[in-house]
From TrEMBL:
InterPro entries: Glyas_Bleomycin-R_OHBP_Dase, Glyas_Fos-R_dOase_dom, VOC_core. This is VOC family protein. The lineage of its organism: Bacteria, Bacillati, Actinomycetota, Actinomycetes, Kitasatosporales. It holds the Pfam family Glyoxalase. It comes from Streptomyces purpurascens. It comes from the Bacteria.
Length: 178
């Protein structure tokens, strides 16, 4: 058995491209490999923002204890009641994948619920378009959409400079990054 495999085979994230379609919301139950727990002093307002603004849905809730939200498979958030929340967002963020066609609608939806909640969109040196959102709980959430790979771009040169090349272009085909 090889130590290397194509991780995209198990990921719900579609291949980058202008026509990439987001997967359907995943409503099944699984052992969560990772999740975020976010304390909130107003559970109803938080659920409203996360569902109407960020596009999550309520998978289930235990009244007054927890609301389990999900978007795609492996994008799980637990909102839990708290006496208070930080007065400002921390420098740390949590990122969720999206596709390029969702970026503008996420910005619009978040601004419709909380007008000053979004920063961006902003293109990154590693071929993504990102938006940063500050939620009612003062959590910093980043939605990141992969842009199509352009071998002639500065982003491609940035990636090659750290040893990441497209498949089939030599340099070990990124084996050290697999």
């Amino acid at each position: 058995m090889s130590d290397y495999y194509d991780a995209f085979e198990m990921s719900p994230v579609p291949a980058p491209g202008p026509d990439a379609v987001p997967p359907e919301p995943f409503r099944g139950i699984y052992g969560m490999p990772a999740f975020v727990t976010i304390p909130t002093s107003d559970l109803a307002a938080s659920v409203d923002f996360w569902t109407r603004g960020l596009g999550f849905f309520e998978l289930f809730g235990i009244p007054g204890r927890v609301v389990h939200l999900r978007r795609w498979a492996f994008q799980d958030v637990l909102l839990v009641p708290a006496e208070n929340v930080p007065e400002q967002a921390p420098a740390m963020s949590v990122s969720f994948a999206c596709v390029l066609s969702e970026v503008d609608s996420l910005v619009e939806a978040c601004r419709a619920v909380r007008p000053d909640s979004v920063d961006g969109p902003r293109d990154t040196p590693w071929t993504t378009r990102d938006i940063a959102v500050i939620t009612p709980e003062n959590a910093r959430i980043v939605f990141t959409a992969a842009k199509p790979y352009d071998p002639a771009s500065q982003e491609a040169r940035n990636l090659e400079a750290v040893g990441i090349t497209p498949p089939g272009v030599g340099h070990g085909d990124n084996e050290e990054h697999a």
